[in-house]
Specification:
heterotrimer; A alpha/beta (251); B mainly alpha (333); C mainly alpha (291); A: 251 residues; 36% helix; B: mainly alpha
């Protein structure tokens, strides 16, 4: 069952086809990897689907509803969430606050200005649980700006996760992190995602991560989809390996 | 923004805040009985400014918007009172406050719609420009506002007429009116505490820290900024209304950019990254101004130099620096 | 007919001065991404220095001497800029924008009182130069000849700046740094030096604006903030960071203000704000600005 379908999605940046008639699908319950060299259009595709940019042409259908004209807010409500390649957190707030704030927003409680946030224990309990699931409990009361890079990447995902989305986009969740930290991060992320039945699409450059953690791989090149298949199929796909050899990072 | 590594957020729970605040309020309440009338009146001015600075800092410290035009809202509050006296003949302090709140809401709602679409530079100059417009209007429409002569405001009645200003004005100001200001101060501080510690307050800080991410966790930027703008302006307008009976008179100067500069200065002096910073800064500034103005006519120069020095070397202000010093004495948690 | 011509000339006069101030502001922003809130007071400082030199120091001298000394205000503000940038602005480039705004606001306050300290609270005039130029007849009316000088300087400044930025090597460096500071630095450009040069040039322009207008109207306290607000309207309309925008914006504001003064004197400033607000709503980046 297709959770997300894009139809002939197009985005121009000046004269360049950043996204060139892309028909991209994500199936219910799968963990998909989106690969391609820099400039292939992966992040632009995610930006289009999550609502940061409007497409120049094409449709985005999510759970059988056309969300193309919806704002970021509308797409979040529909169930699409994302993390960021360059970590985007509320640095002057604690890790716990970052997650709790997201829960308040999700629950529609964020507009309340005459009640103390601290009094809503349900929200804070859930925030603690989420941090625990991501292995960040110990850093709950630390400022998000002050924890390690790996923890920041996890927190970035945790915040997106706290929206309880149906589809979670992760933009390079292991970039900027040392090799030995990558597997634990991906283990944590995928176990949380799979145990809660969330579908995920992960942009990744590290091919070890891609082959070890995804059900399906979509390869992009110069704005278009090059190949789409299981890890084995992609491994045997010569077009993919020749196009991406030398441009994928294997640390 | 640089964040010290492994920084613990100074979590001040509401219970602890109360434990700090209550003794201070008690001390403040004792002032008219212990100190001469002039001291009480001076402190009343300080508390009024503190309310104004508190409002201003909702925008700066919590929402990340630096306004150079807050004198406009202070002036709106003051002139609302003065005009209510002139055209409606009212003398009740409660009605003064209502007039100020209504006027502030109207003006800030309008100005806010224009200003909150922009950040930092444009926001700063827009707020400055708009306050200059109001200032010039106060001059131009002199048959309404009294022009440079301003408008006088007589002593109001308090608590719905229970307490009147008949008799010795100094005694009234240093006792009855002082307590009124103190009560309003406590109410405003309590209300602002709740607001900044509410989910809405968290949303503001999220917008301040990372506008994009705030959007991507479902917080709509402009409406939240707009509400913060209005609340901020109303607090400052309220301060203006409380100020006017103390001063007896309102003139266009209080809408001039130089007064906006003072509001900015006192907040930065106290520390704009803390709740109590603006309060401490306002009270300290009020004393500084009273005693320094006698020494030099180059008040702007002094303020400017200190402001630059503060921003260069002590950006966290009095409260921030004091907390850091205290933390060092107590050892890190 | 000649009344219309005079209105036209007054608009251009105003536009010339505004172009110099707003152009300086835009240039600085375009290269360094900072807005100096004290920029208006730099303009005022230039006005005061020129008024003092021409109107007080050499008050007894002759027209050619005054004319030769006219740019002294601009030289003074250029020097001021060259000193201010490395000392007061550079520490803030890496910090949050609020601190930069606070610092330049502090500078605004300092300059305001420095002018009061140096030259007192009363207006300072250099009207002898203005009157010395005499007037020409425009149809049935007469028009001060000095105003043509101001307009001329404005036009010359626009041409010179265009040539400087698009035809010289330094201009290339300036444009490169403004488009991509890191790249320019990686290619060997001494960014610090470019910054101080750009800032100095911007301050020179503002000071020149003050210098050329002061013979026709005195230097007075508060003129700096008024100029800041007006030049803000210019860059809102024209786009912050664009010199073409500053030129077009200055012309538009010049014309609107002249029309406003003539026909809607009470609300002339409000009309300008209305236009600025409209532009902000329709095209927030301004006519020539980068979105």
């Amino acid at each position: 069952m297709s959770l997300l379908v894009t139809q002939d999605l197009v985005k121009w940046f000046g004269d360049t086809h950043a996204v060139d008639h892309v028909n991209f699908t994500v199936k219910q319950g799968e963990v998909l990897a989106l690969i391609g060299s820099n400039g292939a259009g992966k992040t632009t595709l995610v930006n289009l689907i999550s609502g940061l940019f409007r497409p120049d042409e094409g449709q985005i259908i999510f759970r059988d509803v056309d969300v193309t004209s919806q704002s970021v807010h509308g797409r979040i409500k529909a169930g699409i969430a994302r993390s960021f390649q360059l970590v985007n957190l509320f640095d002057q707030l604690t890790a716990l606050d970052n997650v709790a704030l997201t829960i308040f927003s999700r629950e529609g409680k964020i507009a309340n200005l005459v009640g103390l946030a601290a009094s809503d224990s349900a929200v804070w309990d859930e925030a603690h649980d989420i941090l625990k699931a991501f292995g960040l409990e110990a850093k709950a009361r630390m400022l998000a700006g002050g924890v390690s890079q790996g923890e920041r990447k996890l927190l970035d995902v945790a915040v997106a996760f706290a929206l309880r989305p149906k589809l979670l986009f992760l933009d390079e969740p292991t970039s900027g992190v040392s090799t030995r930290e990558k597997a634990p991060i991906m283990d944590t992320v995928t176990s949380v995602v799979r145990s809660t039945g969330i579908s995920a699409a992960i942009i990744e450059h590290d091919m070890d991560v891609v082959f070890n953690y995804s059900d399906r791989i979509v390869a992009m090149h110069q704005g278009a989809i090059l190949a789409d298949g299981t890890p084995d199929e992609i491994r045997r796909n010569e077009t993919v390996t020749t196009t991406l050899i030398g441009t994928t990072e294997t640390h | 923004m640089s964040v010290p590594a492994a920084a613990l957020r100074p979590t001040v729970s509401s219970a602890r805040a109360l434990r700090i605040a209550v003794p201070i309020v008690v001390l403040l309440a004792l002032v008219p009985f212990v100190l001469p009338p002039y001291s009480a009146i001076l402190l009343a001015y300080g508390l009024v400014m503190a309310i104004g600075a508190l409002g201003f800092n909702l925008l700066l410290g919590y929402t990340g918007l630096l306004s150079f035009g807050h004198s406009a809202y202070f002036g709106v509050g003051a002139y609302a009172v003065a005009l209510a006296v002139k055209y409606l003949g009212i003398a009740s302090m409660e009605l003064f406050l209502v007039a100020a709140i209504v006027a502030s809401v109207l003006i800030t709602a309008l100005f806010g719609v224009v200003c909150v679409r922009y950040t930092t530079i444009f926001f700063g100059i827009l707020t400055l420009a708009l306050s200059q417009v109001l200032w010039s209007l106060a001059f131009k429409f002199f048959w309404v506002t009294g022009g440079t002569d301003g408008l006088r405001v007589p002593t109001p009645t308090l608590f719905g007429g229970l307490v009147t200003g008949a008799g010795d004005k100094i005694a009234f100001m240093s006792h009855a009116y002082y307590f009124y200001v103190l009560i309003m101060f406590c109410l405003c501080v309590a209300l602002m505490w709740v607001i900044v510690n509410s989910p809405f307050g968290m949303a503001l800080q999220a917008i301040r820290d990372n506008e994009t991410r705030a959007q991507f966790v479902g917080v709509r930027i402009w409406p939240y900024r707009w509400v913060a703008f209005v609340v901020s302006g109303v607090f400052t307008g309220l301060a203006g209304a409380l100020w006017v009976p103390l001063n007896g008179l309102t003139t266009p100067d209080i809408m001039h950019w130089t007064f906006s500069g003072e509001i900015v200065f006192m907040t930065v002096l106290g520390g704009f990254r803390s709740f109590a910073g603006p309060i401490v800064g306002a009270v300290v500034f009020n004393y500084l101004k009273t005693y320094a103005v006698g020494y030099t006519v180059y008040w702007q120069l002094l303020l400017g130099i200190v402001l630059v020095a503060l921003v260069l070397s002590l950006p966290t202000g009095i409260v921030g620096t004091a907390s850091r010093v205290m933390a060092r004495f107590q050892g890190r948690h | 007919m000649d009344v219309l011509l005079i209105h036209l000339l007054n608009s251009l006069l105003y536009a010339s001065v505004l172009f110099l101030i707003a152009g300086g502001l835009s240039l600085i922003y375009g290269v360094m991404r900072i807005v100096n809130l004290a920029h208006g007071n730099i303009y005022a400082f230039g006005a005061y220095v020129t008024a003092w030199v021409i109107g007080t120091l050499v008050a007894g001298a002759s027209l050619p001497v005054w004319l030769a000394l006219l740019p002294v205000g601009a030289v003074a503000t250029a020097g001021l800029g060259a000193v201010l940038e490395p000392t007061l602005l550079r520490p803030f480039y890496r910090r949050a924008e609020e601190y930069q705004l606070l610092c330049t606001f502090g500078l605004l306050m300092i300059l305001e009182d420095v002018m009061r300290l140096l030259w007192g609270p009363y207006p300072l005039s250099a009207s002898a130069l203005f009157e010395g130029f005499g007037s020409v007849s425009v149809g049935d009316s007469i028009y001060p000849s000095y105003n043509f000088l101001v307009i001329g300087v404005g036009v010359a400044a626009a041409i010179f700046l265009w040539a400087f930025i698009y035809r010289t090597k330094f201009g290339v460096v300036l444009r490169a740094t403004s488009q991509n500071m890191r790249m320019a630095s990686a290619l060997g450009v001494n960014v610090n030096r470019v910054y101080v040069q750009a800032f100095t040039l911007g301050c020179f322009m503002a000071g020149l604006g003050g210098a050329i207008i002061v013979p026709s109207q005195s230097a007075v306290l508060g003129m700096g903030v008024d100029a800041l607000v007006l030049s803000f309207i210019v860059v809102v309309i024209g786009g912050l960071g664009s010199l073409e925008g500053a030129l077009v914006g200055a012309i538009i504001v010049g014309f609107v203000r002249e029309a406003g003064i003539t026909w809607f004197a009470e609300i002339e400033l409000a009309v300008l704000y209305l236009i600025a607000a409209l532009v902000l709503l329709v095209r927030p980046a301004g006519l020539f600005g980068r979105p």
